[in-house]
């Protein structure tokens, strides 16, 4: 989230971050967004325990209300319904801590280490109804070192995430003629 906010603060970056939404009221990212003058709101998913569609409808309303044309997921750990994904098809990006299609889902670093992977990394992809299966926009690889732990591997992958997410968003905006004035919303539980 912070990498996208920093990138968008540059005068030559082709998008503005207009809104940060978290499904956790205690997310540090909300305070960080506000410190940068970005509107931030919590929409706790637990307030909508059995009404995922209602929760996503509120998110959609907030996105439209803020004039957002693109949604970037940054650590947002909730699966979105196919209906919501369809509303934002081609306009919702996600960063995932593996070289997809390897290790979709959770615990990617532990799984890479457990399988003896020699290369790991991260992927920016378009969000589709199938988890972590959307078209790949960018990837960055890091070597898996013999003494790596989940923590050391995740730290090196995170460095690459901060590089490729703003780059992939810039490129995606550049190849999509419908983005005359791109306004981005970040869905993120944390910084």
UniProtKB/TrEMBL annotation:
Coiled coil: none annotated. It catalyses: N(1)-(5-phospho-beta-D-ribosyl)glycinamide + (6R)-10-formyltetrahydrofolate = N(2)-formyl-N(1)-(5-phospho-beta-D-ribosyl)glycinamide + (6S)-5,6,7,8-tetrahydrofolate + H(+). GO terms for molecular function: phosphoribosylglycinamide formyltransferase activity. Residues 2-169 form the Formyl transferase N-terminal domain. Keywords: Purine biosynthesis, Transferase. It comes from the Bacteria. One of its GO terms (cellular component) is cytosol. Pathway: Purine metabolism; IMP biosynthesis via de novo pathway; N(2)-formyl-N(1)-(5-phospho-D-ribosyl)glycinamide from N(1)-(5-phospho-D-ribosyl)glycinamide (10-formyl THF route): step 1/1. It holds the Pfam family Formyl_trans_N. GO terms for biological process: 'de novo' IMP biosynthetic process. Its EC number is 2.1.2.2. NCBIfam families: PurN. Belongs to the GART family. This is Phosphoribosylglycinamide formyltransferase.
